[in-house]
Amino acid sequence: MNSSEPGTGVRARSRLTVVSGPSGVGKSTVVAELRRMDPSIFFSVSLTTRAQRPGEVDGSHYHFVDRARFDEMVAAQAFLEWAEYAGNRYGTPRRPVLEAIDSGRPAILEIELQGARQVRAAMPEAQLVMLVPPSWETLVGRLTGRGTEDPAVVAHRLAVAEKELDAQGEFDALVVNTDVKQAAGELLTLITGTAV
C-alpha cells in the first residue's frame, strides 16, 4: 500500500475500497455519483461472459469475453474475485486494480457480498464498505415497487438481501443510502480520508 509525504500530490489512501450491499440499495447510482464527484478514482470494470445488452459499451459497463477466455483467466489467477450468477460468470481483473493502487490512485470496486469476501481474502488491506438502506421497509419498497417481476423472484431477492444485511459485521464501514449525493460524499470521505 502506498503512503505519501505531504505535498507530493499522491493521496495517502491509495488502496482498494469495495462497495457492496443488497440488491435494490442503490449501489450503481451511488457509485455513478461518486465517479462524477471525483473522476480521478480508478473504477474497476468487471469481465463477464454474458451477452452485451443494447446500450452497453464494452470496456465501460463490462469487458465482454467468452467462457473459454474467462476460464483461462481463472486458471491464471488473473481475478481478484469471480462468481457465477444466472448462468453467466463475472470477475474483477487483478492487474488493473493493482496498477492503479501502485500509481497512487485509490480504486473502487462495486460487487456483491460473495465477491467482497473473496477480495477480503486476497487483499486483507482492502476497505470494505456496505451500502445499506435507511430501513428494511425502504428496501422492500424499492424491490417490489416496479411491479414488473414475478413475486417469487422478489421473495428470493428479499431473502438474499436479508442474509447480506446480516453480514454487516464483516465490513469496515456502513453508509446509509438515504440521499444519493450524501451517500456518495460519505463514500468519498472513506476513500480519500478527507471530508467533502
TrEMBL record:
<comment type="similarity">
    <text>Belongs to the guanylate kinase family.</text>
</comment>
<feature type="domain" description="Guanylate kinase-like">
    <location>
        <begin position="14"/>
        <end position="192"/>
    </location>
</feature>
<feature type="binding site">
    <location>
        <begin position="21"/>
        <end position="28"/>
    </location>
    <ligand>
        <name>ATP</name>
    </ligand>
</feature>
<dbReference type="InterPro" id="IPR027417">
    <property type="entry name" value="P-loop_NTPase"/>
</dbReference>
<keyword id="KW-0547">Nucleotide-binding</keyword>
<dbReference type="InterPro" id="IPR008144">
    <property type="entry name" value="Guanylate_kin-like_dom"/>
</dbReference>
<dbReference type="Pfam" id="PF00625">
    <property type="entry name" value="Guanylate_kin"/>
</dbReference>
<dbReference type="InterPro" id="IPR020590">
    <property type="entry name" value="Guanylate_kinase_CS"/>
</dbReference>
<dbReference type="InterPro" id="IPR008145">
    <property type="entry name" value="GK/Ca_channel_bsu"/>
</dbReference>
<keyword id="KW-0808">Transferase</keyword>
<comment type="function">
    <text>Essential for recycling GMP and indirectly, cGMP.</text>
</comment>
<keyword id="KW-0963">Cytoplasm</keyword>
<dbReference type="InterPro" id="IPR017665">
    <property type="entry name" value="Guanylate_kinase"/>
</dbReference>
<keyword id="KW-0418">Kinase</keyword>
<keyword id="KW-0067">ATP-binding</keyword>
<dbReference type="GO" id="GO:0004385">
    <property type="term" value="F:GMP kinase activity"/>
</dbReference>
<protein>
    <recommendedName>
        <fullName>Guanylate kinase</fullName>
        <ecNumber>2.7.4.8</ecNumber>
    </recommendedName>
</protein>
